[in-house]
Each structure stands twice: as C-alpha cells, then as structure tokens.
C-alpha cells in the first residue's frame, strides 16, 4: 500500500512539475511575442519620425525610394533648438580659389595614365526624375534597414572610437575598436574647413557588418568623450544600406559618437537646402582597375558670419549646413583635419578582414590601380583655400592598408592610399 501511495504522490508531483514547465513555456512564448510586438512598434515609430510626408517619390534603379520632402519639413527641424530657425538658403561667404573638380581632371596626373572618359558623377535616382523646387531629396528608410542595426537607438550611428589617433596609436586599441585607417592629416593650427577630390571605387566588403569608406574629417576637441567631428565622403556599408553600392554620405558628432549625431539625415542636425543631391544615395559611375577613373569633390567650410559649417559637392551643389550650436569646439574652429580611408575589421583575435580600402590595391601601384585623394586643401582664418602645411600620414598596419603622399603642379598635395586587408603579409 505504501508503495502505491508513494507512486501516486510521485506522479502528482511529476504532473505539477509538467504543468509549471508548460506554464513557463507559455509565459516565455508570450513574453517573446510581446517583445517582438514592442520592437515592431519601436521600429514603426522611428520610421514615422524619419520618413517625412513626400510631395513626390522617385524610385531609383537600385531599389531606393527617394522622397521629395518640403524643405521646412526635413528631419533637422525635429531638433528643439531649430523649431523657429530661419533656413539660410546660401552661405554669406565662400572660400576663394575654388575650381571645377566635379569631374576627373583633364590635366595629367603625377604618372602616366590610360585614356579615360571625363564625366560628372551622378546619383542613380536621377535617371527616373528630379525633385521639385522647394523640396529636398531624402532616401527613404525601410523597416529592414532599422532591423539590421543592433538597436533602434543605434540605427544610423557609428560605433565609438571611429577616429584614427595619429600621435598615440595603440595596437590594443586597434583590435578593440575594429577600425583601421590610412590617412593624411594636419594639426597644430586653427582650421576653418577642408577640401579634397576623392577617387571613387566600389570596394569589396567581407562581412555584412563591416564597411569601407573614404572621407575627410573636420575635428575639434580632444580624442576623449568631447570630440567634435564633421565627416563627408563616399562609403560602402551593407549594414546601413542593405547593399554594396557606393554612396555619398555625411556624419557628425559632438561627443565622440556616444549620444549625438548620425549618418546623413537620420537624425536632426544637418539642414539641407539642395533639391538635387540625396545624402546616402548611390553615386555612379565608379572607377575600374586599369580603366576609367572617376572622382568627386567635397568642400566643408565655416561661414565666418553665421558660424555654420557648410558642405559643397562638386562645383555646383551647395548641399546645406550644420548649425554652429550643434558643437562645442567646432563652434570656434577645427584643430585637426584628416583625409583618407577607413574600414571596420570584425575578425577576432588579431586576424584581418579581406574588406578592401579604396580600390583594394596598395599605393605603390599608382594611378588607375590605387585610389587617391588629390588637391587637398584647408580653409584658413581669412576664408581662403590653401595647401596644408606639415602634412603627416598614419596607418595602424601598413601591410594591410597603406598611404603615400606627393605633390606637383597639377594635383597639388595628393596621396594614394588603401589596400586589400588580409594578405600573406597581413594574416
């Protein structure tokens, strides 16, 4: 009898345990569903904030949707300090000495070049229409774009420590941050802008969470948590855009990428005035190895009167400005200018990615093979463009990505840069 009671008791306890186990599974399932629903709601709210009502929508051949949004309805004006802002439709001052660099120069570069086609770089969406006056083109953010990010909050933001530190490079920091660079730079003076003509390529990306870019940096403050940075150039970033297209981009931060700033128009800040160029949209054509070479010109400068930082693309497109109040150090001037390439290496334990920088070829290969920056200049306190003095170079590991500078009458100060990443000398 005792054995029977014991057996029944054990069965009851077993049944209770199974009941609570099933209840736990149901609870977990409900919690998971609630979590998914909560995430969807967060993503939708974020999309509603970013994607403003469009006057007109243009579908680009690459699958992007370009929304033509009234200039006064753009994301910049979500910022509380910009509620009553009067849009400045043109800068008060423009640096002197600007020349037409919206297409590849017809002048000979430093070494012999193959025959090439000179053609202005366009954005792919231009093939299917243009935005009306009084609007600006904004690349529409899709649900899948946001879902690729680590969180809704981090969407459109760089990771911390994305700035090269030329004077204090630490191999441990390189491995920790995962960012690698090949740059030229100037420091030790007050700078009020920078310019460059940047060779455009479509580098191969190894992992979807890696990127490759070529840009200029306008930097103010220390390399600590108060760093100010304005950045512009081209990039290939599958994580951000969902493809491997080469795209025009900008970035800004006033606290070293922690809580402020973003790419393009993915947060409030940059005020766009131009109706023809879309931040984050694909640019075409791109350069080909031993074939036609294409480049873009970017100029960023500080308007001496209003203090805003303006951006110009090519010789024809003044795109807009970053209001001076966004920054602390850059409200006055920049203390360092950098030009060059950056990649993210997601490989662990000191191994290297095969994500390419620039053309994916080393600087010594020269024109038509390696990527270049030419006619690099800074803007001085008199709002004049001038050649940089004391140009330095920096790369964390030259066997992976390298940089070589030069100077001549046609290209002014220039440098070749880049590399393949992983190779026999860069394991």
TrEMBL record:
Residues 173-427 form the Neprosin PEP catalytic domain. InterPro entries: Glutamic_endopeptidase (IPR053168), Neprosin (IPR004314), Neprosin_propep (IPR025521). It holds the Pfam family Neprosin. Residues 1-31 form the signal peptide. Keywords: Signal. PANTHER family: OS07G0205500 PROTEIN, PROTEIN, PUTATIVE (DUF239)-RELATED-RELATED. This is Neprosin PEP catalytic domain-containing protein. It comes from Corchorus olitorius.
